[in-house]
Amino acid sequence: MTHLVHAVGHLKLNVTDSDAVIRDATEILGLHVTRREGGQTWLSSNGREAELVLLQSDENATHTIGLEALTPEAVREAESRIESVGCKIISREPSLACIAHGVTFSTPEGLRFEIHTPVRDSIYGRRHATTGVGPNRMDHINLMTPDPAATRRQLEVIGGLRLAERLVDDSLNWMYGGNRQHHILGLVKGKTGLHHYSFEFLEFNQYLRLGDTLDRFDKQMIWGPGRHRPGDNTYAYYTDASGAMIECAGSMAFVADDANFEANVITQLERPGNVRVMNVWGTPAPLEWRTHHFPFTSVID
Ligand SMILES: [Fe+2]
Question: Residue 284 Cα, ligand 1 centroid: separation in angstroms?
Answer without folding.
Answer: 15
